[in-house]
Design brief:
15% of the residues lie in helices and 36% in strands. The protein is of the alpha/beta class. The chain folds into two domains: 92 residues, Translation factors (Elongation Factor Tu (Ef-tu), domain 3, Beta Barrel); 111 residues, Nucleotide-binding domain of ferredoxin-NADP reductase (FNR) module (Rossmann fold, 3-Layer(aba) Sandwich), CATH 3.40.50. The strands form three sheets. A seven-stranded antiparallel sheet has the order 4-3-7-1-2-6-5. Strand 5 and strand 6 form a beta hairpin. It is globular. The structure holds flavin-adenine dinucleotide and FE2/S2 (inorganic) cluster. The site of flavin-adenine dinucleotide has 21 residues, from strand 4, strand 6 and helix 1. Flavin-adenine dinucleotide binds next to strand 4, strand 6 and helix 1.
């Protein structure tokens, strides 16, 4: 992990309120595991005080890409960044997806919901390179919010679901998952989606990336703790920022 003022290469809107920010910096050399995240300082001074956690979507030749939804104050400030400006980034942080658990020749299904789609891009890239058959299922609220369908199709079949049915299949990602078979499932998205994927027992192994609210991002403040499944109301917990954000299904209470 290191902290660096990374340079903005580009920052463009790719869907309704969704931005793709490409940053360059030596930090990218330390990035390898899909599903890790960076902690981004969106302002110049101490306001806002807290950094914003955003998944690493792609790592390429001295640059890395993050994709974020313009949501509140922090991500709105991020959307104002233009090429040449610098952004203070801490990372890479956390334990990402164990891509090596999917063996060559096996089938992996990648399930992304909304801003849970970005980490699936780097994961799909690495799995395909290792000879794993990749199927991506991505879900959004509506057609205007859809992104990275074409990009993910470079690595295998892509299925899209929208809640209102304005694009792809009407409904949820799990409606599509119900009809497919896989050796391993990787998922990132809203908590109800993760719960449904976990409860569906779609494969022998399932890994889920949690997006808990965070403070420090490095395991020091306890803002992000969640209980373990074997001790759901007790004192055993995991920190999403440093033990996760990726956990095996059944490991923590989601
Ligand atoms: C490991 C991880 C990876 C993430 N990856 C992405 C990503 O790739 N793309 C993306 O768009 N979003 C991602 N998020 C969610 C993103 O961090 C929040 O959307 C963002 O912090 C909101 O900041 P804001 O100032 O715009 O919103 P505000 O609501 O104004 O934020 C206020 C505070 O709440 C926190 N917060 C608000 N929503 C969330 C949330 N869903 N999760 C965690 N903290 C939150 C912020 O950090 C901040 O401290 C990720 C979160 C985590 C924990
Ligand atoms: S965010 Fe501080 S311990 Fe996880």
């Amino acid at each position: 992990m290191r902290q660096e003022n990374c340079k903005v290469v580009s920052n463009r809107q790719i869907a309704d309120n969704i931005f793709e920010l490409v940053l360059s910096g030596e930090l990218s050399a330390a990035m390898s595991q899909p599903g890790q995240f960076v902690h981004v300082k969106v302002g110049e001074g101490f306001d806002p005080l807290l950094r914003r956690p955003i998944s690493i979507a792609s790592i390429y030749d001295g640059t890395f890409t993050i994709i974020y939804r313009r949501q509140g104050r922090g991500t709105s400030m991020l959307a104002e960044k233009t090429p040449g400006m610098s952004v203070d980034v801490l990372g890479p942080l956390g334990n990402g997806f164990p891509a090596g658990e999917a063996k060559p020749g096996q089938t992996a299904i990648l399930v992304g919901g909304g801003v849970g789609v970005p980490p699936m891009y780097e994961l799909a890239k690495q799995l395909a390179r290792n000879g794993v058959k990749v199927i991506s299922i991505i879900g959004f609220q509506t057609a205007r919010a859809v992104f990275y369908e074409k990009e993910l199709s470079d690595f295998g079949d892509v299925y899209v679901a929208t809640v209102d049915g304005t694009y792809g299949r009407k409904g949820y990602v799990t409606d599509i998952l119900d009809g497919l078979e896989a050796d391993i499932v990787f998922a990132c998205g809203p908590t109800p989606m993760l719960r449904a994927v976990e409860n569906g027992n779609y494969a022998a192994k399932t890994y889920l990336s949690l997006e808990e609210r965070m403070g420090c991002g490095i395991g020091a403040c306890f803002a992000c703790v969640c209980h373990t499944k074997d001790d759901p109301k007790g004192f055993t917990y995991k920190k999403v920022c440093s033990d996760g954000p990726v956990f095996q299904a059944g490991e923590v209470v989601i």
